[in-house]
Amino acid sequence: MQTANTSEGIPAQMRLGLLSPLYLRRLFERMGATYIKLGQFIASAPTSFPAEYVEEFQNCFDRAPPVPYSEIESILREELQRPLDSVYEYIDPVPIASASIAQVHGARLKSSQKDVVIKVLKPGIEDTLVADLNFIYLVARVLEFLSPELERTSLVAIIKDIKESMLEEVDFRKEAVNMEAFQRYIEAMGFDRQAKSPFVYQHCSTKRVLTMERLYGVPLTDLDSIRSLVPDPELTLVTALNVWFGSLISCESFHADVHAGNLWLLRDGRVGFIDFGIVGRISPRTWAAMEIFLASFATEDYNAMASALSEMGATGNDIDVDSFAKDLQNIFSSLQQELDTEIIVAAARSSDAAAVSANVVVDERQMNALFLDLVRVSESYGLKFPREFALLMKQLLYFDRYTRLLAPSMNMLRDERINITSNKHTRRMN
Ligand SMILES: Nc1ncnc2c1ncn2[C@@H]1O[C@H](COP(=O)(O)OP(=O)(O)OP(=O)(O)O)[C@@H](O)[C@H]1O
């Protein structure tokens, strides 16, 4: 079987030294916003980059020193074009969070006295991104010119893709539109007593400033706090899954970054979705194949899985479905054995929350490895998946993690309470 997307083309000394995944990841973290985002893009695109790099960049740390509050204040003034004390009663100068692109401050609105958070784009970020990305684009063009072989891997196309997705992230009007569309979907589907996303205050939001309702809650991985808020954590998970799966088909875009920092159990018992900076869009054709893929995943029907994956990964070649199915089965059965052992160990110590969490982390790594194996084997049959597939799978891995923690005996793809496909024919909302 031929291997695809490996780092074999990179000389061994380089793989161990300057270009080693670990070194490169740390270097990217030090080089700032563009490279941190580039690292995150690599982590989310196993269909385009070697597995060791995808794995390493999953640890890419997006925390940056806070920008002094005086600078944040100037941006707010410039953007809102009004004295700040006419809009906000109070702004906490100590940020809640500071990442490479944005900084978040707690505040209170003047008019309604509502608690809000203000997400502010850090100064000079767009210029830095554009300059860095133009430079990277130029280097890619030169490399393709010098080594036409590289053109096959469509380096320039990848950089273009990265540029588009990064520039979307620095326009908070897009994030506001995504958030409002999601909230409309929640209301239209009658989920509003079970879930919510923050309300956007348009009168104090611009391209660089997003003022939204402040939510109070705990991440879906904080089992102890969740138990103190709701009697049945399993139901919280079922809600989160139904809302998210429903949005895949009924919403223009889906939340494509449901890590525990962005998915909360709120104090009122609802599930809160925050941070709509990264969203995905899925074509009806990919979704139809994805449905078959998920069903086959649940029933371990490897022939159906092979056909669904072939449908999703554009290729002109005829695929030997039987042999592809056997390769898939091999990957899954070796993983299943490891997982079973892990679960037995965790179950034996289930009163120990730390042991269960540690186990979940192990599972997450294994599930990532499973996905990378899946991509590797599929590519060896000439399949090339759309990025949406990777984005979707990544979210499923997060949900798999929550399931192991909140409802260890539940099978999220087979549970009758979870509607993965029932909204299939619902018209998309904008
Ligand atoms: N509506 C909100 N209510 C309460 N806290 C919020 C809200 N929005 C953001 N935060 C806080 O600010 C942090 C960062 O916000 P957000 O996730 O939108 O930014 P980010 O830079 O995209 O971060 P990340 O990459 O970690 O997801 C969140 O983890 C959360 O603690």
TrEMBL record:
InterPro entries: ABC1_dom, Kinase-like_dom_sf, Mito_struct-func_regulator
Domain of life: Eukaryota
Signal peptide positions (record): none
Pfam families: ABC1
ABC1 atypical kinase-like domain ranges (all copies): 61-307
Name recorded for this polypeptide: ABC1 atypical kinase-like domain-containing protein
Organism expressing this protein natively: Triticum aestivum
